[in-house]
Amino acid sequence: MRSAAMVLGVIGGCLAVLVGFFSYGYTEVVDRFGEVEGLLHQVRDPSLVRVASFVAPIMAIAGGAMAKMRALWGGVLLFVSAGLMYYAFGFGVFTMFPIGMTGLAGLLALAAGKPDEPKSHF
Predict the structure, then answer these.
(1) Distance separating alpha carbons of residues 77 and 9, to the nearest angstrom
(2) Nearest-5° Cα angle at 109, 74 to 13
(3) Cα–Cα distance measured from residue 7 to residue 70, given in angstroms and rounded to the nearest whole number
(4) Residue 119 has what pLDDT?
(5) pLDDT score for 46
(6) What does the H/E/C string look like for 62-98?
(7) How far is CA 22 from the centre of its chain?
(8) CA atoms 56, 57, 59, 64: torsion sign
(9) Which site among 15, 39, 53, 82 is 20 to 30 Å from 98 CA-CA?
(10) What is the pTM of this model?
């Protein structure tokens, strides 16, 4: 389960990087060029979107990388990343896979209570 959490977390984090690039870029374009009626409108909290665009993918990739050896810490990071993405970006066509993959990876990492090795990870 920890290997699956690792793979899903890293892939979800890579997809979250793409969402983060476009979200951060969108807020910057609207700030620099202004709103265009019917086309571009600024989000409610641009600073939240910018912070989440940077922090959430890093937490997802780090949580996925830690899921194999430190499943508890990795699972918590993955859940926080999925929650931050949901809070900042919402659930839509471009965010459903990063949120779903990181959430499932967090669940798998936390469910790996019995480790493969005799040494416990908690």
Answers:
(1) 10
(2) 55
(3) 14
(4) 60
(5) 95
(6) HHHHHCCCCHHHHHHHHHHHHHHHHHHHCCCCCCHHH
(7) 14
(8) positive
(9) 39
(10) 0.88
